[in-house]
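Shipment paperwork, digital attachment
Item: protein structure file
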Amino acid sequence: MSSDATTPPSDDPTAAATRDIADVAAVEVITTAAVHLMSAAAVKCGLSEDTPGAKGADFLDLDEARKLITALAALVTASATDLGNQHARSLRDGLRTLQLAFREASPYPDAPGEGPGEKFTGYVS
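Attachment content:
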């Protein structure tokens, strides 16, 4: 998206957001999306910090966690070659940690290869 020097600046917030996102590298967008999925999955696995108003375990929702972890696994697996080793390694480590936390929190263990995201990552042990 190019800008013409004779075009006056727009007060349209959509145009401003488009200009802002155009300046962000794809790796950063993918990594940010992955971090959001990781954070949400961690909360749904009951891993958030206890606060005076609630315990982290109060937010445990394994059905939701499974969906988030599977989406994260698909994103990380599909984009790993484009992210480069440094970014992909960190995301894979976080994903594996969430997969193991899910297994630990689940009262009914999944069969090997059937856990959240394992169709993309293979069995996590």
